[in-house]
Amino acid sequence: MLEIKNLHAKAEDNLILKGIDLTVHAGEIHAVMGPNGSGKSTLAQVLAGHPAYEVTEGSILFEGQDLLESEPDARAAAGIFLAFQYPVEIPGVSNAYFLRAAYNEKRKRQGLDEIDPIDFMDLMEEKLSLVNWSSDILSRAVNAGFSGGEKKRNEILQMAVLEPKLAVLDETDSGLDIDALRIVAEGVNSLRRPDNATIVVTHYQRLLNYIVPDYVHVLFGGRIVKSGGKELALELEERGYDWVHEVAA
Amino acid sequence: MTLDTYRHAFQRFTENGGGSPSWIRPLREAGLDRFVRAGFPTRKNEDWRFTNLQPIATGEFRLLDPPEALPGLDALRPYLFGHEDWPRMVFVNGRFVRALSRLDGIPSSVQLLSLREALDSQREVVEAHLAKVAVNAPSAFTDLNTAFMADGALLVLPADAVLEHPVHLVFVTAPGAADGATHPRTLIVAGRHAQATVVESYVSLAEQRYLTNTVSEIFLEEGARVNHCKVQLESEAAYHVGTIEAWQGRSSHFESFSFAMGGALSRTNVYTVLDGEGSHVQLDGLYVGHGVQHLDHQTRIEHAKPGCTSREIYKGMLDDRSHAVFNGKVYVRAEAQQTDGKQTNRNLLLSETAKVDTKPQLEIFADDVKCTHGATVGQLDELALFYCQTRGIPLSDARTMVTYAFAADVIEEIQTRPVAEHLEALVRERLERGSARAE
Ligand SMILES: Nc1ncnc2c1ncn2[C@@H]1O[C@H](COP(=O)(O)OP(=O)(O)O)[C@@H](O)[C@H]1O
Ligand SMILES: [Mg+2]
User: Of A61, A134, A225, B273, which one's alpha carbon is 20 to 30 angstroms from that of B357?
Assistant: First the structure.
């Protein structure tokens, strides 16, 4: 599904990703772990097409297509979804309006008409229940004045509505209490299908108790320095990231 | 046009009966004298620093007469907010047209009539109020209007009268009005605890160069509530100068919204004096510019008595090479203790070449006051656009969505929903056209 080869990316003359190789197949869950500043978010943002990052070397293929040639909206259209580490506020645009616009774009690409307002409300009800939320949230402006936890939950709601093929969750667990964490994890798990895949970017092992990965990768200094099964996450938890330093050295 | 030409024009105007009735003659002459003495302001005048009036000062504008063929109601329908049922006065080329108006549906105690008629039949109330507020801020344009005002509206609400529907004043410039000028004058007198909503629209049925120089004076007696909304949709080749001046008595409540999207050059002044304790004013506005439009607003809130509150939010959205000016002054007299004032001006530049000059000003002479003000000029939030894109929304749609939200936020302040919805649609249409062009 996703094939990243020798990916190098920089921002403002600062080389951040220094040769990433990562292959994700349909049905898999990959965890990307690593200390602060190792380049996890950069990798996620480069996948989504953030204009601040320039890919200087390497390639990303998504379902055989060269992703680097497409605009961010085309990437979303291809089925990639990024749950932001820091979701963006859009004052004045209601969640309902935003979700409907995004959802209708998807329908348009499938050659379908815009969704009928009543059907949309039904859809919302279903998706809101996945993240255990009330419909009050729909009339609020996108992420504006939301608490950290609300913002994360909103990302999962958007993901539930858009049903992407590949979801990249960038530290969706940080700042969540255990109940919120469980809700978010259950949301993610319930959206899991044999034909989609998830990359969970996280700092802590905690989330991986709920979203169990098939593979764990350790990112350090812009490179994947170690890959393994889910037990690698536990090992990291135990030994800390200093251990990675040694591995990387 | 030299100032002498204005003297000659005035002579012709009065010879043709324009100056009548005779009791108003001294007022007109005083206006003309002040105007001719001072002339059009130049940019050396602090109030006009960012607006070049040369196109108006050097232009030749004849006083417009009603056209031979009056437009039909069909031509006006797009401007009626879907509410033909509201009481309405239509002015074509500055003159009241009864056939297009609708004066029923208001209580019999309320007077709504053309100024031209009122000068004859309602001398007492007109004489007591006309040019009584609009003298506080000396202005060449107000003086010019006083000299040449030919028609307009008079709305008088006795104590406790409440209007159920908004009164819509529609100032239409008909095709064939190139190089013409109108000087409409409106007077609104709201008695004690009276309530009314008044909407003034300025529209043109053709793209043409003309001058609208309008003045509206609004009196709010104790406890009165007036909601005023001005919708400026002039031809983009036209010049528009409009002044709204309010005087507020004790515990009165004045809300004003100024929407400006038309005109080659437009200037709207909104001035109010909080002259009674416990009165409140809310001044809001939105200007939307594209092409080479120049959109100027000047507001002044004078806190003259203690315990009054003022709120002001003006927003601007400028594309292409358009230029906007905002100058908002809050003036607190020494006597006006416990003043509470808040003013903001936010501008969004949609192109590299659009420009805004903003100058919020506070002048405070009392010591126990709570006043804040602030102005911002910014670009679209790139991160918000990217965020929309990652949800599959194409960049041009994302741009429209985020920009529109910026404008919709202040349009929400308009209490009259059909007007708010109409303006929202106009802004959306303008943005969609803009982004279609950008692609
Ligand atoms: N837009 C940017 N401009 C400049 N430097 C950046 C930018 N984004 C990230 N960086 C730098 O790249 C490094 C990796 O950041 P990031 O990918 O956010 O790490 P992580 O998510 O693993 O904590 C950091 O040193 C950070 O300061
Ligand atoms: Mg990060």
Answer: B273
